[in-house]
Predict the 3D structure of the following.
Amino acid sequence: MNEEVLNQSENNQYESTLKVTETMKVDLLSAAKWTKFLCVVGCIGVGLMLIAAVCMMFFGALASKMLDTMMPLGPLMGVVYIIMAALYIYPILKGFQFANGAKAACLTNDQYQLARGFAGLNSLLRFMGILTIIVISIYAIILVFTLLFAAVGLAAMQ
C-alpha cells in the first residue's frame, strides 16, 4: 500500500486538493526535529544496551565460574538485552525516514519526499501498535496463569 501512495505521488496520476500551508510546514518541521532527536537518543540507547549485554554476558559467566554455580542468568540477560536492542533498530530507522522525508519535503516542496516521510511514520506507528498488542497479550497470559496458580495454591492449602 505504501508503494501505491509513493507511485501515485511520483506519477502525479491523482490530483489532490489537500494543501500544505506554511503553518503546517512549521509544525511538520518541528515534528521532524523532535523525531530526529528521539531517534538519536534511541541510537545511543541501543549502543548502551549492547554494551550492557556484553558486560552481563562476560561478568555473568565469570561470576558463575568463580562461584562454581551453573546459573547462566548473566549470559541469559545479555541475550535478552541484545534481542531488545535489535527490536529498537527498526522503529529508529523508520523514525529517521519520517524525519528526513518531512524535512526535505518542507524545504523543497517535494510531494514524493512527504509521501516517503509519511510512509516511514506509518510503518513506525504500525510496528509500535503491533508490539503493544503483543506486550498486552503477554501481560494477560501472565495474569491468567498467576490467577490460576493462586487458585490452585489456595485449593491445596484447604
